[in-house]
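With this grant's support, we have settled on a layout for protein records. One resulting record is reproduced below.
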Amino acid sequence: MVGASPLRRRLSAAACMLATAGIARTARAQSWQLDGSALVYGEKARTNVVEPVARITRLFGNGANLYSQLTFDSMTGATPTGAVVTRTTQTTTSASGTTHTNTVGTLPTSPFSDNRFALDLGGAMPLGLVTPQTAIHLSHEKDYQSAGISGSLGIDAPGHLTTLTVGGGYNRDEVNPIGGIPVGLTSSDVTGESSRPKDVTTAIAGLSRVLSRRLLVGANFSVMHETGYLTEPYKVVSIVDPNATPSLGDDGLANAPTSTLASETLIHENRPSERWRRNVYTTGVYHLTADIVYLSYRYYWDDWNIQSHTMDVKVRHDLPEQHAWIQPHIRFYTQTQARFFTFGLLTGEPIPEFASSDQRLGPLRTATLGATYGFRPSDVPGELTIRAEYLHQWGKTPSSSDVAQPDGVDLFPPLDIGTLLVGYSLQF
């Protein structure tokens, strides 16, 4: 499903975190390392994901490595269509071509199911104070294909206390939604095209520094340029009757219509064909007497007027049992809305050039609480890790009393998400 691709990228990164954790511990002798993980992700009454990852790495005595990784994920459930809640039933068509009817007073969703297969190959080769790395990526799902290449160069200062990293990558994606490419901001028209390309170019520069035996700090800046088809073809925008709408609020979401309408028209969303993304990421690792504290902060902004702040804290604590540890985790995230985000458009007013009601482009906040437990079983070689997290997501809806809503209905209802990740690592 095209609309789920950003979610898949986040889940893949999470699943790989445990699977790749051991690679940094370079062996002095040649060896192999097997890493695997299984992720279970669930949104309350919405999306469910199962994602296994397997990775095999060849570790060489000089610090070089080569790896191959296979990923499969299966997604099922329902995702919001972008339509507002109304007092009429709504029938939508899912990504699989089936129809779904939403009852009165509920947030309109569309069911979907999809599978994704991905292959990643890469490696690194230390050459004195310089370490080049390269990787290729291939993935396939029924309406989205992606192929990419990336590389980086790590440069250590004499003494290996300071490291400069520069790198970049390029992805060529193909979007081929079921039913073809829709004409943006129309109710049913299609362009006649079965697919459109999407190009993604990234660049990154970072610096890390060992300040003392206990403290490591780092910072990096990355930029991403996306061009091509950036619209979500299955998302819609509501056009509602202004005669049924009271005066709107003035809290910055003045384009949000009431959701108490008797009827509405649904049109396909439309987004710009170019996007510049930038972020600054800073991190610090401090070794206490027994525990290790990980702190990070990320500031993100793009030319769609989205800005976000992410704060992340982890504390690793070694348990009295031999070869066991626990790592609590807390994370806060806040995001402003895209300039063309709207809860709906009004009948009789000019249709803008771009419009989307995708909640992922709206004013979001999330809070995450979780922990990871790692241990070495006495009767099984290798290390097992188990991570469980709970995420609460909520958004900002029209708060003015002038914006009417059905009793007990939220235009941007909160969402509860749970994840369980089990990982295994074995060096042999």
Notes: The longest helix spans residues 5-19. The first strand starts at residue 31 and ends at 43. Residues 8-27, 245-262, 399-407 have pLDDT under 50 and may be disordered.
